[in-house]
Write a structure and sequence with these properties.
Blueprint (H helix, E strand, L loop, with lengths): L18 H5 L3 H23 L5 E7 L8 E7 L6 H71 L5 H33 L20
Antiparallel strand pairs: 1-2
């Protein structure tokens, strides 16, 4: 029976048990994280602007022997009409933008993590089916074809039976190859979701070797 050379791939780098934390390092998610960080910085600036900008200056003057030395204190307090209300409105606006940025990031994180979980489930299912094809279905189709050829040689099967058995074996092998390619495609998509080094290899590994 011809051997089927299976694609050799390493384990996926995504761990389903900690997927939310790992997906947070996705480049698209980093864009949303940067937006949230910028909004948070603007909130801190608005909060700082609410604090009174008072200043205090102390001056010591020596005025000669005829006069006493003098110490003067200068206190500066900014007086702007409706400043408190305007700063409250500014802070409220910045807080609203921060809430929006945080909600967008969390929504995108949940959606992306759900997409990755679905891809992992599909990859695992295809991997199991691919293994079954290689271990069971392809050998069985080959055995049936060989048995039909032997029966034909013994005059117990027709040429049509032989052609049908061989065609069935070819179809099974093509299905196994297509499934192997689909599994490898999903593996590649999952394995390159994150920049190199951002996630440790998971315990989910593709069955390797030849059968």
């Amino acid at each position: 029976m011809p051997r089927i050379n299976r694609l050799r791939t390493s384990p996926i780098r995504l761990d389903p048990r900690d997927l939310d934390a790992e997906v947070a390092h996705h480049p698209q998610m980093m864009v949303y994280a940067s937006k949230e960080a910028l909004a948070a910085a603007e909130v801190r600036t608005a909060e700082a602007n609410k604090k009174p900008d008072w200043s205090l200056a102390v001056m010591y003057s020596q005025r000669g022997s005829q006069y006493s030395n003098m110490v003067s204190i200068n206190v500066s307090v900014p007086l702007q009409w409706d400043q408190a209300n305007r700063q409250d409105r500014e802070l409220a606006s910045k807080l609203k933008l921060l809430d929006q940025a945080r909600a967008e990031r969390e929504d995108m994180l949940r959606a992306h993590a759900a997409e990755m979980r679905a891809m992992i489930a599909e990859w695992e299912n295809d991997r199991e089916r691919s293994t079954r094809y290689v271990r069971e279905l392809v050998p069985l189709a080959n055995e049936r074809a060989q048995a039909t050829i032997a029966a034909y040689r013994g005059g117990k099967a027709s040429l049509t039976d032989v052609l049908f058995a061989r065609r069935n074996e070819i179809d099974v092998r093509l299905q196994a190859l297509q499934l192997e390619m689909d599994t490898a495609r999903l593996w590649a998509q999952l394995n390159f979701q994150l920049p190199e080094g951002d996630a440790a290899p998971s315990t989910h590994a593709v069955a390797e070797g030849t059968r």
